[in-house]
Amino acid sequence: xxxxxxxRGARWFRAxxxxxxxxxxxxxxxxxxxxxxxxxxxxxxxPDNRFPRATDNVVGLEQGWLLARTVxxxxxxxxxxxxxxxxxxxxxxxxxxxxYREEMLGLHLACASAVDAYxxxxxxxxxxxxxxxxxxxxxxxxxxxxxxxxxxxxxxxGTLVHAMxxxxxxxxxxxxxxxxxxxxxxxxxxxxxxASFAKLGLLDTxxxxxxxxxPSDAQIERVRTLLADAARDARTDRxxxxxxxxxxEAAQKTRAASIEVRRRxxxxxxxx
Length: 272
Description:
- This protein has eleven helices and seven strands.
- The protein has 272 residues and is an alpha/beta fold.
- It folds into two domains: 8-241, Alpha-Beta Complex (2-enoyl-CoA Hydratase, Chain A, domain 1); 242-271, no CATH class.
């Protein structure tokens, strides 16, 4: 069972925000970011969680609702503020917590509540920034991180964004892991490399030269500065949306077909 204090998400939360104000499985707390205060949020292991499938750094029933609550608490606290605090999602999530009880009790609703909270924060004017320090997998990343105005990631072993683990994907596609890695060299969405993910236009900043497991003080400050820069940049986008992900040079090249499909759908919708 994973020790909370040695997961990357927990380590980076403490490095950036200090001691959490809440307990596992969702840590949150406010700390300085540039010249303002930000709400930091991370999913961490909870060995004593009553749901056996949700003891690791995964998004289950409680995690989804707790993510939604901490984000909505920030929205409510800043409801009348002229300048909304940034919300930083520290992302190190292995998966959503699959299980019979979880599915029967509405895991999809718990995850959706977190998605809706982050999207609502964006719409309310909070700069939402995601920092990927470990795996950002499947529905867990959709619930915690993907709705961010800006996404940053450490370019380090162990950081990845994908729908399923490499071994599982190899079984599904009837390939060896080595063959799957080879496939990822030519089909970018199949790659498990963070550098390849950046080519899709979904990543705003790929941070190299940082030890993800044992960062130095200088590396932590560098990441903190980049987060503050991302929050300031997000404030300049008056749409508060995610359309910029399709406008980058990388996206124009690697997601040309997706962009064309969207253009045609919009054209047909407007003509109806």
